[in-house]
Design a protein that fits this description.
Helix content: over 70%
Number of helices: 1
Largest sheet: none
Radius of gyration: 18 Å
Structural class: mainly alpha
Organism: Metabacillus lacus
Number of strands: 0
Protein name: YfhE family protein
Shape: rod-shaped
Pfam families: YfhE (PF14152)
Order of helices and strands: H
Strand content: under 5%
Length: 43
């Protein structure tokens, strides 16, 4: 039982880290997309 709990904790830590990384990358991609969209609408 303790082994499973430890594994779940490790998985949660990993997914938490991935979440932060994905959020950061998503924000950067979102910003880049918005900039290109804004440039297109100006032309």
């Amino acid at each position: 039982m303790a082994e499973k709990k430890r594994r779940d904790q490790a998985r949660n830590t990993l997914s938490r880290t991935q979440e932060v990384i994905y959020q950061r990358e998503f924000k950067a991609a979102d910003r880049a997309f918005n900039e290109t969209a804004n440039q297109r609408s100006r032309h």
